[in-house]
């Protein structure tokens, strides 16, 4: 019981450190993408990949179905065949960037999620997206990792605990999705 109490107390403290203004900026970038027919791409590894996949599902269905404007969004983690082909035949570090080379254009958005902020395949995707004029959003820890420095907009979480990082990533992605699902923007 005490573990649950302590975990929740720490999580409350971590959530209270999230920056609503930065989340609001991400909402605006997603709104701009939707209104201008731009693509939104999402990438991450492990739990971050799962969080990204959930965001894509929420946006492609929940924030699009029955709405006048719809999202064009792809999870770069969702095509196992493509990922494993690149990982096996080229290198795992390129699995997201190479997909972006096929689909991304100037003005699109890449949302990259990395608890460490140092996942090479995520960083390569952000570097490529930045190089062609995409807007890049990084969800990562506040005090470390390269992602926070190279993303155009960083949504930082002030924790090094992977569980609380992922809890906050889910909270932020739910805010992003529900702003559109509830037609607040």
Give me the secondary-structure topology.
Blueprint: H1 2-16, H2 20-35, E1 39-43, H3 47-62, E2 72-75, H4 80-89, H5 97-103, E3 109-113, H6 120-131, E4 135-141, H7 147-150, E5 153-157, H8 162-181
Number of structurally distinct domains: 1
Biggest sheet: strand arrangement: 2-1-3-4-5
Return the structural class: alpha/beta
| CATH class placement | Alpha Beta
Tell me the span between the first and last alpha carbons.
40 Å
Radius of gyration: 16 Å
Helix content: 40-55%
User: How many individual helices?
Assistant: 8
Shape: globular
Total beta strands: 5
Order of SSEs, N→C?
Answer: HHEHEHHEHEHEH
Question: Could you describe the 3D structure shown?
Answer:
The chain has one domain: Rossmann fold. It contains eight helices and five strands, in the order ααβαβααβαβαβα. It is globular and about 50 Å long. Helix 7 (147-150) links the parallel strand 4 and strand 5 (153-157). With 185 residues, the protein is an alpha/beta fold. The chain has a five-stranded parallel β-sheet. It has helices at residues 2-16, 20-35, 47-62, 80-89, 97-103, 120-131, 147-150, 162-181, and strands at 39-43, 72-75, 109-113, 135-141, 153-157. The protein is 54% helix and 14% strand.
Quick rundown:
This protein is α/β, with parallel strands linked by helices.
């Amino acid at each position: 019981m005490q573990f649950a109490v302590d975990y929740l107390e720490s999580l409350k403290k971590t959530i209270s450190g999230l920056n609503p203004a930065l989340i609001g900026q991400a909402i605006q970038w997603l709104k701009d993408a939707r209104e201008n027919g731009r693509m939104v791409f999402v990438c991450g590894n492990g739990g971050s990949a799962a969080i990204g996949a959930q965001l894509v599902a929420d946006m492609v269905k929940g924030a699009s179905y029955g709405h006048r404007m719809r999202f064009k969004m792809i999870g770069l983690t969702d095509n196992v065949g493509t990922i494993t082909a690149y990982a096996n035949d080229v290198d795992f570090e390129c699995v997201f960037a190479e997909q972006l080379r096929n689909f991304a254009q100037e003005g699109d958005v890449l949302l990259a999620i990395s608890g460490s902020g140092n996942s090479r395949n995520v960083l390569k995707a952000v570097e490529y997206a930045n190089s062609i004029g995409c807007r890049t959003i990084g969800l990562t820890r506040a005090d470390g990792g390269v992602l926070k420095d190279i993303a155009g907009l960083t949504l930082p979480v002030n924790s090094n605990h992977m569980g609380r990082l992922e809890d906050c990533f889910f909270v932020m992605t739910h805010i992003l999705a529900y702003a559109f699902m509830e037609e607040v923007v």
